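Ex. 9. Protein: TIGR04283 family arsenosugar biosynthesis glycosyltransferase.
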Amino acid sequence: MAAALSIILPVLDEAAGIEACLARLQALRARGVEVIVADGGSTDDTLRLARPLADRVVAAPRGRASQMNAGAREASGRVLLFLHADTALPEAADRLIAGAVGAGREWGRFDVDIVGRHRMLPVIAALMNWRSRHTGIATGDQAIFVTRKAFDAVGGYPDIALMEDIALSRALLRRSEPAFIAARVHTSGRRWEQHGVWRTIWLMWRLRAAYRLGADPAELARRYGYRPREE
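Predicted structure tokens for TIGR04283 family arsenosugar biosynthesis glycosyltransferase:
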């Protein structure tokens, strides 16, 4: 039987946190939400730890876009939610999404909190939420959701190395306006703190500007610190 909602998690070497991530989703699973883990070639214990706590674990070429598309192909849900492994959903996420879709929205995202010690993280989160509301562009940290019909109509995520969430948002905006759910997801600020908050802000501004000007997403991914995928 098809699920109303499928949650798709792209992962790579997440053994340290995958059990905690999936444990947070068990209440949603108990209400009929499908959970799919899309692995990009983990070499640690991610797969072994994930299998008992997910409905399905699928393999895909490394890269969030290709992994999320692979998970979407296996999903039975009428609505797809793409969730980062270090992001926690609000307790009533399934009901909030159902309400947005029931009101006629084809896609949307949540507001975000960034969890960490640095005093700038709440400011960054507030700016992310403000920017998203004014541009209609969502980021992966905001837990993008989309109806299966709309996702298939735009061809899913473009298989690019970085900025795939911006590209998907732009494609979906050509169909309809998104739902902005004020309830917050909580995402880890570990990357911001590890690499320096101000340095990361400056880097992301430059990468987004370069993408708008037509830069190759593979080159942007290397500058961001992602490992290139071997074809």
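Check your answer against this statement. The first helix runs from residue 18 to 23.
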